[in-house]
Design brief:
alpha/beta, 7-stranded parallel β-sheet, Rossmann fold, 6-stranded parallel β-sheet, 38% helix, 13 helices, globular
Amino acid sequence: MVIAFYTDQMYLHGGIEKILSQKLNYLADKTNYSIHLITSEQKGNNFCYEVSTKVNHKDLEVNYKRDTSYFSFTNLKKVPKHIIRLKQHLNKIKPDVLVVCNYAFDFYFIPFITKNIKTIKEFHSSRYFYEKEYNLSSKSQKMILNLNKWVEKRYTNLVVLNKDERKHYPSENVVIIPNFSASNTSLEGCLKKNIIIAAGRVAPIKQFDHLIQSWSIIGDKYPDWEVHIYGEGDFILTEKLKKLIKDLEVPNIYLKGATNYLDKKMQEASIFAMTSTTECFPMVLLESLNNGLPIVSYNCPYGPCNIITNNEDGVLVAHNNRDEFALKLSNLIDDKSLRNRMGKNGSKNVKRFNEEIIMQQWLDLLEKKLLNDF
C-alpha cells in the first residue's frame, strides 16, 4: 500500500509537525507500506524533527505568502500551479491513501482532484474556536463555516482528536484518533529545578500574556523560581509580551525562543503551565506527562480535560481565570510532595496514549475502513 501525507511545511516547530514526524517514522520503519511526504512550501529547509530516510519527500515549491490571507490575489494566483503540481505528483506515486494534515486553502480543492484516492483530513485545532469565538452572526462567517462542512463531506474520512470535537462535525465519516506520546522517558537521575515551563508557538491563541499576568501576582513570593516560555512565531506579539513583562515588572520570567531539546528542558523543570484560549489535543501536555511534569492548565475546549486527570496528574483551572491560575501554581510550588506525586501519576497515565496503541488505530483505519472499500 502507498500512503502519502500532505502538509505545508516541516521546518517550523509545532504540534502538527511533531506528531506527523512520529507517524511517518512509525509507518516507514515498522510497516511494509511505501510512505510519501508531500509539502507545498518547505523552501529548502531541513526538517525540524527527525524523519526516517525511508520516507520519500517531495516539495511542490508553491510557496504561498504567509504574512497575508490565503484569499489574497498574491496567493490565489498560485492556486492553479499548486493544483497542477499536486495532481502531477499524485499521478506519479499513485497513493492508495492521502492524509491531509494541515489546514490551508488546499483543503478546499484536494478532495476534488484525488480521483481513485481515499482521502483523510486531520483536524488539529478545535472547531469550538470557529463556532464560538468567531462572530457567527456575520453572513460571511456563516458562509465559510457552511462551505467548510460541505467540503468535509467530500473527504473519505475526517479524523478528530477527542470525543468532544466529534459533536461539531455533522458528517458520518468522522473517526476519533488522539495524538500519542512516542516514548515513556526514564527520569532516573534527573535533577528537577525550580522552573515553570510553557511551550508553543507565539500566537494570540496561546495567551502567554495570561501566564505573565498570573506570574506577576505571585512571582515576588518565589524569588528562587523562574518561568521559561519556549516558542517562536509572531514577532510583533513577541515584542508585546516583552513589553508586558517590563511594564508589570514581572520577576524571573523569560521568553526563551524555540528549542530542539524541549524534552530535556521539561525533564529539568518542575511544573508545566498552559493558558491557551483553546487546544484540541496538545502534544506538549502529552510530553509534559511523559517527562513527569505536573500540569496547571486552563480548562479550555477541549484538549486539556481529555489528557489531564484533574487533581491526579495536573490541575484544570477555570478558563481565563488568571487569579485562580496563580493560586494553583502557588499551591504546587509550595508542595513538593504533591508535585512528585502528580509527576509519577502522569508518567503512568500517559501510557494510555502510547505510540503502539494509537498507531494501531491508524492502521485499522488505513487497512480496514479504506482498503476494503475499493
